């Protein structure tokens, strides 16, 4: 990394799971560097959804390094997710033709509910298959799959954890960490945000700010996707052998299931 910027730059790891992100600093100038970011980053930057992209350079080994402006910002707290700007930025993302065109050019195919269900089943450990709550959840997803079809696919972030939202000191709002973006039903994003952060009695108001009504169809699609997402979380923590978090998600899954099951 040092040879890209010169000896006067101090470079340090920025953390993260991949170890491919770095901070660079030189006399008050700060950059955020990342190895092998998707070309999608350029469009996100142009749309003002992530901090501004400064440059992109390809190394001799084929790696691509991107540099973004480092911003002074804080992560949103859970109770910040009810801010109007969160709903407005998510609406902008879901209605961006530029984002959709770029992901399509990158070869992303629209994700259907049947694909998600097959991925869940194929990645399910035998120990989880034997659990009653998992069996009931899979039965629900299978039974209702015909009732959650939605043709108007959009770019979905798919990880709207409050830690991925940055509020800059100048009050600009950004959504970062786009590695898991897909083309899919916007209910995938909406269910995560509403179920995890917004009291149900406030869903109507939040969605009104976002720009759509809370219909029975949307409510049903969100319920299907939040059950699917919760199973995926159970699977992830099971694979990582983090028992406490796995159990927390299993308990949450139990609460999500319709009483008639």
Structure description:
The chain has 261 residues and is of the alpha+beta class. The strands form three sheets. The protein has a five-stranded antiparallel sheet with strand order 1-2-3-5-4, with helices on one face. The chain has a three-stranded antiparallel sheet with strand order 6-8-9, with helices on one face. The mean pLDDT is 91. It folds into two domains: 2-70; 75-256, Aminoglycoside phosphotransferase (APH), C-terminal lobe (Aminoglycoside 3'-phosphotransferase, Chain: A, domain 2, Alpha-Beta Complex), CATH 3.90.1200.10. Helix content is 44%, strand content 17%.
* Domain count: 2
Assign the CATH superfamily of the largest domain.
Aminoglycoside phosphotransferase (APH), C-terminal lobe
Morphology: globular
Largest sheet: 5 strands, antiparallel
Average pLDDT: 91
* Uncertain runs: none
Strand line-up of the largest beta sheet: 1-2-3-5-4
Domain Aminoglycoside phosphotransferase: 14-215
Organism: Sutcliffiella horikoshii
GO molecular function: transferase activity
InterPro entries: Aminoglycoside_PTrfase, CcrZ_PhaseVar_Mediator, Kinase-like_dom_sf
């Amino acid at each position: 990394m040092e040879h890209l910027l010169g000896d006067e730059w101090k470079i340090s790891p920025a953390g993260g799971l991949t170890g491919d992100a770095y901070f660079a600093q030189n006399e008050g100038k700060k950059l955020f560097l990342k190895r092998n970011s998707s070309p999608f980053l350029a469009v996100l930057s142009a749309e003002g959804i992530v901090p501004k992209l400064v440059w992109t350079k390809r190394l001799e080994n084929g790696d691509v390094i991107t540099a973004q402006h480092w911003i002074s910002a804080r992560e949103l707290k859970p109770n910040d997710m009810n801010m109007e700007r969160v709903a407005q930025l998510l609406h902008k993302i879901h209605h961006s033709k530029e984002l959709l065109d770029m992901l399509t050019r990158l070869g992303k195919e629209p994700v259907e509910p049947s694909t998600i269900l097959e991925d869940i089943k194929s990645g399910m450990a035998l120990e989880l298959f034997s659990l009653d709550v998992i069996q009931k959840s899979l039965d629900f997803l299978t039974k209702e799959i015909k009732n959650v079809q939605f043709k108007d696919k959009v770019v979905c972030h798919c990880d709207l954890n409050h830690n991925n939202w940055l509020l800059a000191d100048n009050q600009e709002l950004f959504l970062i960490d786009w590695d898991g973006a897909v083309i899919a039903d916007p209910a995938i994003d909406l269910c995560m945000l509403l179920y995890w952060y917004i009291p149900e009695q406030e869903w109507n108001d939040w969605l009104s700010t976002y720009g759509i009504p809370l219909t029975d169809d949307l409510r049903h699609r969100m319920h299907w996707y939040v059950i699917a997402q919760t199973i995926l979380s159970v699977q992830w923590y099971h694979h990582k052998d983090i028992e406490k978090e796995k159990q927390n998600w299993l308990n949450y899954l139990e609460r999500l299931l319709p009483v008639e099951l």
